[in-house]
Structures are given as structure tokens and as C-alpha cells.
Amino acid sequence: MTTLATHRVRRTSDLPGYISHPDFSEPRATQTYAPQTLLTDCENYDTKYMPDEVTREHAKRMHFAAYRAHIARTVAERARWLTAYHKLRDRVVLGNRKLIYRAVRRRMEYQNRADDMIGECYIVLIQVVAAFNPWLNVRFSTYAYTCLVRALSRSSRRLATDWLSRSLSFESLPDGEPGGRVDAESSLSSGSLQLDEYLRDSHPLLSDREKAIIVRRFSLGDSTDGSTLEQVGEAVGLSKERVRQVQATAIGKLRMALGSDSDGI
């Protein structure tokens, strides 16, 4: 499989970007990458999963269609290739949408935002399809799922950060009894970069124990769900009440630090 000869061409104001391949300039390229070969097949990927090898072939033709749109000499020719590009892209998105639901199910602590998360993931999946290089030896399902999980982790981190950054009182926090989850429902916040800095291993504001408890308690890790006080205690080897005390101390430090760095927090 050829990989080294491909390169990415950036999108313009009215045309999508694409992965360029040397074969695109060959005389038989239009036959080799003809979109209609796939668009007219009898498979209905609106209702079934698209295998990786089929996704790869769709992606090759999608990038070729974008290439032809970029070099088109007439408005009609450009429109024809853009139509083919969008049909191929959307077919891949629909055929791989089960990856969205797999990724969302990982974020069980935010099931009250499931519909919003699914909507966000569709946007991410469209971007992933457009960026996927089918000439690399990478499975689309693996690549896309990783991108979706990372996007959801960033979104969840921003939500939790915003909640933690507000004027939380220690008394308002859940008591952490079994079945109780931290409710991180809030709008996105630009304060996440500040909190990230304080949670770095090298930052002296919090002790290692305080960082570990805050990360686990408020779902600030890439793969960690928000945990109750009891669950955090089991993970770090402390009693539930001791976790509550350490958490209170850490939140106090963070509130003071965030308050000195940002207006209105």
C-alpha cells in the first residue's frame, strides 16, 4: 500500500481539503476512482455497518472527487464533483455511525447530555472522514473511534472544569453515597486551560494526593468516570471522610487560585 507519496491539500473558502495521491494525475484515474462505482451499488449503509475495506474505498474516491473539484474548469464540472464528494462522505458517516454510540456509552456520567454528545460526535465524525488517509495502513474504525473518544473527553473535561471553576461551596457537593454521581451539567468554559495547569504533575499548588482525588472525583482524566467519595477512597487507599477532607482542601486552593487568575469566578 502506497503511503509516502500522499500529501494533504488544505481546504479553500468554497472547496474541501483532500489527500492527494500521484495516481490522481494518471490517464485512467477517472476510471480507477469513479465515484459512481460505489454510489450505485445495492448496499444500503443507511441501515447497516460499513466494513473498513469498503470505507477505505469510499475515502479514496471521496478524495479524488475533491481533487477534481479543485481543478475543475467550469462551474458545472465543479458542482458535479462536489456532489460526488459529499455523497461519498455522508455515506461513510452513516455507515460508521455506530462508532458514535460506542464512544458516547463510555461517558456514562454524562448520560443526561447524551443527545448533545451524539450531535457533537456527528460533527467530529464528519471531520474525521474528511481527514482520513485511506492510503495509510490504519483502520478507519480504530482511527475514528480514537478521535471520538478524545473529543468527548475534552468536552467532558471542559464541563467539569467549568463546574469546578464556579463558586462551589464544599457543602453543596454530593455526599458520595453509592449511586450518587457528580452532576457536571454546565456550559463550556475557557477556564479549562487554567485548571489543567494546576493539575500538572510539576505544578506545586496541589499535592499529588489532592491532584489524584480531584481528577478522579470530577472526571478530569481522559478515561476516568466521575467517582463517588467512597470509590475514590478505595482507589487511593483512604477513608471516605478523609477523601472529603482532602477534596475540600484542594477545592479551596483551586478556588483561590482561579479567583486570582480570572474575573467573576
Biggest sheet record: 2 strands, antiparallel
Number of folding domains? 2
Shape: elongated
Which regions are unreliable across 5 or more consecutive residues at pLDDT < 50?
167-191
Range of helix content = 55-70%
* Radius of gyration over C-alpha positions, nearest whole angstrom: 24 Å
Report the order of strands and helices: EEHHHHHHHHHHH
Compute the average pLDDT: 80
- Tally of alpha and pi helices: 11
State the end-to-end CA separation.
53 Å
Structural class: mainly alpha
Strand content: under 5%
Widest sheet: strand ordering: 1-2
Topology, number of strands: 2
Description:
The protein has 265 residues and is mostly helical. It folds into 2 domains: 7-153, no CATH class; 157-261, Arc Repressor Mutant, subunit A (Orthogonal Bundle). It has 11 helices and 2 strands. It has helices spanning 29-32, 36-39, 52-71, 75-95, 98-106, 114-131, 140-165, 192-199, 208-217, 229-236, 240-261; strands at 7-9, 18-20. It has a two-stranded antiparallel ribbon with strand order 1-2. Helix 3 runs antiparallel to helix 4 (75-95), helix 5 (98-106) runs parallel beside helix 7 and helix 9 (208-217) crosses helix 11. It starts with 6 loop residues before the first strand and ends with a helix. Mean pLDDT is 80; it is low at 167-191.
Which helices and strands, and how do they pair?
Layout lengths: L6 E3 L8 E3 L8 H4 L3 H4 L12 H20 L3 H21 L2 H9 L7 H18 L8 H26 L26 H8 L8 H10 L11 H8 L3 H22 L4
Antiparallel strand pairs: 1-2
Helix pairs in contact: 3-4, 4-6, 5-7, 6-7, 9-10, 9-11, 10-11
